[in-house]
Amino acid sequence: MLVALQVVAVAYLIGSIPFSFLVARAFGVEDVRRVGSGNVGATNVLRSAGKAAGALALLLDLGKGAAATALTGRLAPGDAVLPAVAAVAAVVGHMYPVWLRFEGGKGVATGLGAFAPLAPMGALFALLAFALTAAATRYVSLGSVAGGVAMAAFAFASRGPDPVAVAAALTAVLVVFRHRSNLRRILGGTESRVGPPKE
Question: Which of 76, 90, 158, 188 could form a disulfide with 82 if both were Cys (CB 3.0 to 4.6 A apart)?
Fold first, then answer.
């Protein structure tokens, strides 16, 4: 029990490191929560601080998710459940970081990084679903939701209801919940798109 609590706490704290906030500030944006979409994530950093800042924020958010699950392997070697728990804890940390009064991002990059060591093919499938959906619709938010759902679906299809699949499903629910305002704007035709419109 003590190890489990340590894993959850450490994974949450790693996930809660507000890299997007810090990167945006380093690139001249005082508070990324007060510009653009208000989201503490790589897409809003890209739009408000530029491509280099967005790419750096994305890599750091991916890295902290992977670090949370990798560290769990050291704290609880051979445990099949705790790495999956750590993945969810890292995503929750990104979404609700204690350092920013629980105003965080939407957990997509952190989730992808966290599940990549646990289910590499599922993470690849999620990335493909994200890319195809975002390219077809030019909605990053819709691509993010598609990626989260695809990760969970692939995990259940390939692994059955094991701890990683259950954690992926829970993460997908969290990602959809955090994107609920984006989905409402998509339905209303007011969601921002990326890239030039197709001819």
Answer: 76
How many structural domains does the chain have? 1
Query: What token pair was written down for 191?
Result: 């969601």
Give the tens place of pLDDT for each residue, 94-111: 999 999 999 999 999 999
DSSP state of 149: H
Let me know if residue 196 belongs to a domain: no
Rounded-to-integer distance, Cα 21 and Cα 81, Å: 31
Structure pTM?
A: 0.92
CB 57 within 8 A of CB 19: yes
d(CA 63, CA 69): 10
Residue 193 belongs to a domain:
no
Q: What is the largest CA-CA distance in the chain?
A: 58
Containing structural domain, residue 83: 2-188
